[in-house]
Amino acid sequence: MDYSKEYAEKLITATQAAAMVESNSWVDYAWGAQTPVSIDRELAKRVSELKNVKVRGGVLLSVPEIFNEDPNGDVFIWNAWHAGGPDRSRINKTDAGFYIPLRYSELPKYYRQNCDVDVAFIQVPPMDEHGYFNFGLNASHLMAVCEVAKKVVVEVNENMPRALGGFEAEIHISKVDAIVQGENPDLVELKGGSFGDVDRKVAELIVNELSDRSCLQLGIGSMPNAVGSLIAESDLKDLGVHTEMFVDAFVDLYNAGKITGAYKNIDRFRQTYAFAAGSKKLYDFIDNNPQCMAAPVDYTNDARVISSIDNFISINNAVNVDLWGQVSSESSGAKHISGAGGQLDFVLGSYLANNGKSFICLSSTFENKKTGQNESRIVMNFEEGSAITVARPNTNYIVTEYGIFNCKGKSTWERAEGIINLAAPEFRDGLIEQAEKSNIWRRSNR
After folding, report:
1. Which helix (H) or strand (E) holds 227?
2. For residues 185, 85, 220 and 54, what is the CA-based torsion angle, rounded to 10 degrees?
3. Which whole-number Å values give the CA distances from 426 to 2, 173, 357, in the listed order?
4. What is the C-alpha separation between 262 and 241, in angstroms, rounded?
5. Which member of 125, 252, 347, 421 has the greatest number of CB atoms within 10 A?
6. pLDDT, tens only, 362-392
7. Would you say residue 195 has pLDDT above 80?
8. Alpha-carbon distance 354 to 360, whole Å?
């Protein structure tokens, strides 16, 4: 069937698309590298005409023009599901932006049952011959957004990869209200972070826990990056991938011959993911690649799905861990840093899997930029306002450069001892003293 006539009828300019937004409306900006570009620029020009426009998005890889034209959030109020650098800056500025707490696996349901969307703007690759616009790098939750949005506008970018998937990975032109032919900018890249000696020590401890046929979920950051690098150098083979975020490390592992997916219980031979962010190398790898499976996040992050995969290995970062075994990965006090994302989903699912393991990794210390002093990431109690991402019954392995500790089955005094041993030596005596005061330290511990 020829869809050229319908395409032409729905084609509008970015200025016309931006004109759809009214004061007091909810606007969706998609996610990651699919944030609109041309429409965003035109919407920013309307800053003096509008009031109280609430915009949802997340994992921003670049600063939107609506931020530049409205730096204090007087008109455009940012609401982020997860924080990249630009999100973080906006959220930590009074009244300019806010974080929406979530378990990432529930995001499609959030939209379908709890969220209003007046206009959705989504950057997509060109329409195919069957009239479908692929969701590119984000099968994640975009179908749910489109189902509830009063108006759906796609901004076409010829540089957006076409990500093959299992389901909910594309939308038909009949479900689209308007099409903007974008300017085809290069996709914003998320450069892979370098890693140092501490990251490498943590990675070595984790890689020793892996076996052939393990199925991997890697979070973002230098430590998961280091894990990927060490796996590429190892003798491990026949690994699988089932992850929330698809990153460059998986491309490197595939090119090193480590990933086959041959022994996955589900989606065999396919690298399954909800969204992707990385370098051009990653985007090129995904494009029309049958081994990459883009799927909605209520599938990829469903603990029941994760638990069905043997030898599942989940690797994520944390900001702080306390002596009770609680994990904080979202904020440091009231200062917002990241988001819950799918960390809890994968902590729960991987432990339930046959021979599955969940690793929360962090450096033992960090430098306080205000004081220039080293501080411990292992603490007795979190600073007031810190979000608890993983509750203490759910924590499995915690890893720092000083060791690895399995919290499962351990009492409060056993946890205190095991987690203190993960702290930098200069902080251990102070932590022991605090543990004694909190009645979780036995006289026989030392």
Report:
1. helix 222-233
2. -80
3. 71, 62, 30
4. 10
5. 347
6. 999 998 888 888 999 999 999 998 999 999 9
7. no
8. 19
Which one, of 296, 297, 298, 291, lies nearest residue 250 by Cα? 291
Q: What is the CA radius of gyration of the chain?
A: 23
Closest CA to 199 of 160, 161, 228, 175: 228
Q: Domains in the chain, ordered, with CATH?
A: 4-181 (3.40.1080.10), 197-445 (3.40.1080.20)
Q: Are 132 and 322 in contact, with CB atoms under 8 Å apart?
A: no
pLDDT one-digit tens code per residue, 93-128:
878 899 999 999 999 999 999 999 999 999 999 999
Q: Return the pLDDT at 93.
A: 83
Q: What is the pLDDT of residue 227?
A: 87
Question: Whose structure tokens read 């650098």?
Answer: 85
**CA separation for the pair 334, 12 (Å, rounded):** 43
| Mean pLDDT (whole number) for 205-234 | 89
Residues designated as active site: 244
Cα-based angle 302, 173, 6 (whole degrees, multiple of 5)? 180
Cα–Cα dist 66/57, whole Å: 13
The DSSP-derived string for 389-417 is SB-TTT--EEEETTEEEE-TT--HHHHHH
- Predicted model pTM: 0.95
